[in-house]
């Protein structure tokens, strides 16, 4: 009888915990690493994550620890579920503890500030494991819905199709349907840029601009994402799939989306600091909008919606002024 697949999930936030549930429901033995010992103890004693998924009963195959060495021991898959801008420092500490041959799986949707590296590039830069041992899980995956075992689909991407299929099997459940893809660049960019567009749509909703504005921002936001992806060698078809359009629609439509909610508060007139104060969890687009814009500039790609979000979030430009400037840009053909 074959031994069960072992998975370490490094990060006990809502998405890390929810994906740990998926892995456990698929038959894996899951160890969830929590930064705070009291949260790990609460997970083990109450079978819930009271801080991030209160009221959700966790599977018996999932247990928690605050000891990274214990979590990482003998893991077939090491799932990274920390805020994207903290990945480098965390992974530098964990790399000496990694199990031989473990596949590093990124749940993070961001671009690193300064380096403009995608998360899989940061993983390779720090852990030096090579692209065939780095995978990405992305798509329309709102953590609260998955924790409630509501139906969802996702993409598991790795340049090595065999590794992607292994991960697909490890997280396939009756409610979570993963598809494989070898276009890691496109899958990661779809996940990172959708957070920025989610902020833009949230701002528009907060301003009461209506559904035409929302539909336009989603569509033109997807065009921006595709332009950047093609400049970086991605397959444009990826952006019409779950990692692109699917994730973008979920983020821009749901009140469960942190980025959409953050943007809505800005659009209603709250300052950046006020919005941060009422936002408990990380809205990745707040920092990634700067790194995505920087990445686009480095490759000569025009991303006006992304630049507008940067102006509002980080330059303090009033949303009404930013909207007027965005709408008054020179007219041009759609397919450009």
UniProtKB/TrEMBL annotation:
Domain Glycerol-3-phosphate dehydrogenase NAD-dependent N-terminal, residue spans: 8-163
Residues the entry annotates as binding NADPH: 14-15, 35-36, 52, 109, 143, 258, 284
Entry's EC annotation: 1.1.1.94
Subcellular location: Cytoplasm
GO cellular component, one term: cytosol
UniProt KW Oxidoreductase keyword: yes
UniProt binding sites for NAD(+): 11-16, 143, 258
InterPro entries: 6-PGluconate_DH-like_C_sf, 6PGD_dom2, G3P_DH_NAD-dep, G3P_DH_NAD-dep_C, G3P_DH_NAD-dep_N, NAD(P)-bd_dom_sf
A biological process from GO: glycerol-3-phosphate biosynthetic process
Reaction equation(s) it catalyzes: sn-glycerol 3-phosphate + NAD(+) = dihydroxyacetone phosphate + NADH + H(+); sn-glycerol 3-phosphate + NADP(+) = dihydroxyacetone phosphate + NADPH + H(+)
Pfam families attached to this UniProt entry: NAD_Gly3P_dh_C, NAD_Gly3P_dh_N
Origin superkingdom: Bacteria
Binding site for sn-glycerol 3-phosphate: 109, 139, 194, 247, 257-259
Family: Belongs to the NAD-dependent glycerol-3-phosphate dehydrogenase family.
Name of the featured protein: Glycerol-3-phosphate dehydrogenase [NAD(P)+]
Gene: gpsA
